[in-house]
C-alpha cells in the first residue's frame, strides 16, 4: 500500500523533527506540512464498483452482455480511478448473496451493480442494507425497489419495471381485439410478480385471465402446462420469463398449433433468445428497451442518440448484431454512477461509510439524466426514475426486432 506508507513515513519524519527541535513552532509547522502533503494521497483513494452477474447457469444470456459492457465503463470518474470487480452468481440466489457479502466485507466496494435476474436481486437486498452499500439492480421486478423502505433505501435499478411492460401488453392486446388471455411464467419471483401485473392491467382493459401456469428455468418440457392453456382457448398468451428458457413456451405453443397472439416480457431482449426460439417466435410481441430498435426510433425519441452511441461502442467490441438490452442496463448503471460519484466525492473519500451514504443520496437525487432507455428522474419514493418513454412495442419478424409505432 504505497500511498499509506508515504503517510506513515511523513508522520515519522515529522515526529522525529519535533523531538529534535522540541515542541517549537518550527516543529509543529513541519508536522503540519508533512500531514498536509499526505492528505491529497488519501483523497485519491480508488473507487471500487462490484458487479454480481449471472455469467453461468440458465440466466447466462443476460449476464454475459452485462459483463462485456463493463469493459466499456469509464476507468476514471471525477478525477478518481475506478476499479470494477465482477463475480458470477451462477444464476443462483445463494451464490448471489455470497458474492455480495464478499464484495462488501472483503473488497470494500463503494457500490454494487447486479444481479442480472429478479430472484437474485431480491436476495441481495438484506446484505446491501446491512452493509449500507448502494446497489443498482439489472433485473425487472418492481419489488426490488418498491416500496422504498429502510432496506430498499439502498437499492436502485435500471430496467423498466414489470408494471410498465405489463400495461403495454394489455393495451396492445386490447387494441387487437383480445378478450381472453392466459399466462405461463417462471416459478420464481419474476413469474409471480409479472403475472400479478399482467392480470391487473388485463382487468383494466376488460380482458379475462383464463389460465395461469408455471415452469422452472431448467425444465426440459412445458407440454403439460401448454395443454392446460390450450384447453381454455385464449386469444393471447403471455410468457413471463427471461433469457433463453423463455423460448420453450412459445415453441411448444406453436408445435401444438396455437394461432393466437403471443407476448413476451422484456427479459428476452437479446439475440440468444432469437437464436433459440427461431421461427417459432416470428409474429410474437414484446414491450422492450428502446435499445433493441434504436435505429428505427423517431428522431425525437429521448433515448435514440445515446442508445445508438452505446450500440456503436458495444459492437466495436463484440461484433455487429451483438448488442442486447441487458448490456444497456449495465451501461445505464454506469451512467448513474458517473453522474453521482463526483457529487459524493465532494463530501467524502471512497472506501468510507460516509462516501457510500453520499453516493446513495446522489443517486436518489438524479434528475433529468438521459440514458439509453429514456430520461431518469429519481426521488425518495422512485428508485427507477423512468417514465413510459422508456418502453417500446416490438414485433419479432424473420428473427429481427421490429419497432411497432403506437
TrEMBL record:
InterPro entries xrefs: BCAA_transport, Leu-bd, Peripla_BP_I
Domain Leucine-binding protein, residue spans: 46-392
SUPFAM superfamilies: Periplasmic binding protein-like I (SSF53822)
Compositionally biased intervals (Basic and acidic residues): 1-11
Annotated stretches, region: Disordered: 1-20
Keywords: Signal
Residues that span the membrane, as ranges: none
PANTHER family: BLR7848 PROTEIN, LEUCINE-SPECIFIC-BINDING PROTEIN
Family according to the record: Belongs to the leucine-binding protein family.
Record protein name field: ABC transporter substrate-binding protein
Amino acid at each position: 500500500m504505497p500511498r499509506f506508507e508515504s503517510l506513515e513515513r511523513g508522520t515519522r519524519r515529522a515526529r522525529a523533527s519535533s523531538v529534535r527541535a522540541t515542541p517549537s513552532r518550527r516543529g509543529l509547522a513541519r508536522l503540519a506540512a508533512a500531514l498536509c502533503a499526505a492528505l491529497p494521497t488519501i483523497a485519491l483513494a480508488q473507487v471500487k464498483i462490484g458487479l454480481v452477474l449471472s455469467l453461468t447457469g440458465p440466466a447466462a444470456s443476460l449476464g454475459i452482455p452485462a459483463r462485456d459492457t463493463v469493459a466499456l465503463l469509464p476507468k476514471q470518474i471525477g478525477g478518481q480511478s475506478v476499479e470494477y470487480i465482477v463475480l458470477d452468481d451462477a444464476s443462483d440466489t445463494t451464490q448471489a448473496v455470497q458474492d455480495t457479502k464478499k464484495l462488501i466485507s472483503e473488497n470494500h466496494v463503494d457500490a454494487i451493480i447486479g444481479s442480472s435476474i429478479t430472484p437474485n436481486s431480491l436476495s441481495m437486498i438484506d446484505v446491501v442494507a446491512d452493509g449500507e452499500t448502494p446497489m443498482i439492480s439489472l433485473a425487472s421486478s418492481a419489488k426490488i425497489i418498491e416500496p422504498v423502505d429502510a432496506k430498499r433505501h439502498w437499492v436502485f435499478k435500471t430496467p423498466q419495471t414489470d408494471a410498465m411492460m405489463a400495461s403495454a401488453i394489455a393495451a396492445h392486446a386490447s387494441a387487437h381485439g383480445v378478450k381472453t388471455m392466459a399466462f405461463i411464467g417462471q416459478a420464481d419471483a419474476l413469474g409471480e410478480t409479472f403475472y400479478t401485473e399482467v392480470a391487473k392491467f388485463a382487468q383494466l382493459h376488460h380482458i379475462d385471465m383464463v389460465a395461469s401456469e408455471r415452469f422452472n428455468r431448467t425444465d426440459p418440457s412445458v407440454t403439460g402446462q401448454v395443454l392446460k392453456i390450450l384447453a381454455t382457448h385464449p386469444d393471447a398468451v403471455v410468457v413471463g420469463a427471461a433469457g433463453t428458457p423463455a423460448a420453450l413456451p412459445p415453441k411448444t405453443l406453436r408445435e401444438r398449433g396455437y394461432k393466437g397472439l403471443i407476448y413476451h416480457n422484456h427479459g428476452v431482449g437479446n439475440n440468444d433468445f432469437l437464436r433459440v426460439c427461431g421461427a417459432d417466435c416470428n409474429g410474437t410481441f414484446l414491450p422492450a428497451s428502446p435499445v433493441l430498435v434504436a435505429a428505427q426510433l423517431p428522431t425525437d425519441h429521448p433515448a435514440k442518440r445515446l442508445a445508438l452511441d452505446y450500440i456503436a461502442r458495444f459492437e466495436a467490441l463484440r461484433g455487429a448484431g451483438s448488442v442486447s438490452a441487458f448490456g444497456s442496463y449495465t451501461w445505464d448503471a454506469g451512467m448513474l454512477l458517473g453522474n453521482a460519484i463526483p457529487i459524493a466525492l465532494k463530501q467524502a473519500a471512497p472506501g468510507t461509510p460516509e462516501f457510500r451514504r453520499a453516493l446513495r443520496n446522489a443517486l436518489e437525487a438524479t434528475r433529468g439524466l438521459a440514458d439509453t432507455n429514456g430520461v431518469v428522474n429519481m426521488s425518495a419514493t422512485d428508485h427507477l426514475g423512468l417514465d413510459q418513454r422508456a418502453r417500446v412495442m416490438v414485433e419479432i419478424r424473420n428473427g429481427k426486432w421490429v419497432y411497432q409505432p403506437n
